[in-house]
Amino acid sequence: MAGKKKFIRDSVYGDISIDKFEERIMDMPQFQRLRRIKQLGLINLIYPGATHTRFEHSVGTMNLGSKLSTELGLDNDDIELIRASALLHDIGHGPFSHVSEGVLSFPHEELTKYVITKTSMRDLLEEKFDVNKIVDIVNGQGYLGPIVSGELDVDRMDYLLRDSHNTGVAYGVIDYERIISNLKLEDGLILDMKGVQAAEGALVSRYFMYPSVYQHHTTRIVNSMFRRALEKVFDADIVNENEIYKYDDADMISIFRNCENQFANNIMSRLDTRQLLKRVKTIRLDNFKVPEKMYKIEKKALRKAEEEIGQDYDIDKDYVFINIAEYPRFDEMKTQVNVEGKLYPLNEISNIISALSKARFNIPDISVYVPKEETSKFNKFKLENYLDLPEIDREKFHGIHYDQIKLF
User: Fold this and answer.
1) How far apart are CA 177 and CA 319, in angstroms?
2) CA angle 261, 262, 268 (to 5 degrees)
3) Core-most of 62, 102, 297, 352, by most CB within 10 Å?
4) Distance between CA 237 and CA 76 in Å, rounded?
5) Cβ(325)–Cβ(171) under 8 Å?
6) Given a cut of 50, is residue 403 above it in pLDDT?
7) Is residue 393 helix, strand or coil?
């Protein structure tokens, strides 16, 4: 890379070198905004150390992208292109990262593309790069795309390491160096057999980070509360969702506190004082014969059920939340592994990954939340009276119950 180097002292990797042009990218207001957007949104209400930002994650992703590109033997131009793409891959994230994205009618990648191609950021980038190539890489397209956005990409590696480090949850510690040293770039990233154990560790880590951090039951209600308030300010034209990339966390907090929408005011007050809604019902998805059916329940059906629960229990419908944990996708299981010249999906090579694939619905659940002061009303609450739930697997339940009895 040309130009004089500077270094950023990173809490995960130590010194990360940047060149003069990368420094100019980082000094743009569009990038500096990422300093004011928490990587894990509102999770610091559960894990106080989770105050790291999209800025740190973007720099870390650039660092891993550079390491992987060098290991793959790419030329300097491609390495610089990967570094810039990794640096910019989250430039379109709205306030509190994925929390606000859950309300938008488009993914954050669309806003990332807009910032890269339609703002002053483009003028800078075009001094050195084809912005369309950057957009392609950010979206996982083309020959270089899987490095930044693929099945076993540097974005995932960094956020697992960084989120684990900052939350204090040990599950996210992965051997990224072993993974990187055993990847080849062909038609996508191909993992050598020698890297399978490290890849298994990464998948197991992510599997446990979901219930512990990303889909923790308190995480889900703070996210749901914020999202409903954000919907209200969108509907009231207080904020234009197409311009969400201009706002940071502090902007949105200020809007919620000071706007004329009373619901947004109250939700922000509850988040400020950690007066969160409480669970009154939980059903684990592995209780159902076909857990996947839960993800076919439409949002309007959930909202109708919330309204009916509110009506029956004399609670404002806006303070009743039915939340289904995020679908446990784990695309890394599809990573291709080179075994003596033939390619196989990782879940066919590894018994551990195959078991994870089967166990993915063991932890997710559907939960109902209401204000703490209303919880006593729900002693005999039955969710099936309000939602058409999949069939319960009675045999599985009795089998588990019998096995537990034998332990005593």
Assistant:
1) 46
2) 95
3) 62
4) 47
5) no
6) no
7) coil
- CA-to-CA distance for 197 and 71, rounded, in angstroms? 19
279 vs 267: CA distance, rounded Å:
17
Two structure tokens written together for 17: 């070198």
Strand segments (E) across 174-255: 183-186, 188-192
Q: Which two tokens stand for residue 342?
A: 């033939």
Q: What is the pLDDT, as a whole number, of residue 54?
A: 98
How far, in Å, CA of 123 to CA of 29, rounded? 13
Dist CA 101 CA 260 (whole Å): 23
- On whether the CB atoms of residues 158 and 189 are closer than 8 A, the answer is no
Confidence band for 173, pLDDT divided at 50, 70 and 90? confident
Name beta bridge partners: 367: 282, 323
Amino acid at 28: M
The tokens for 18 are 């940047």
Identify the pLDDT of residue 5: 77
Q: What are 281's strand-pairing partners?
A: 368
* pLDDT above 90: residue 84: yes
d(CA 249, CA 65): 27
For the entire predicted model, the pTM comes to: 0.92
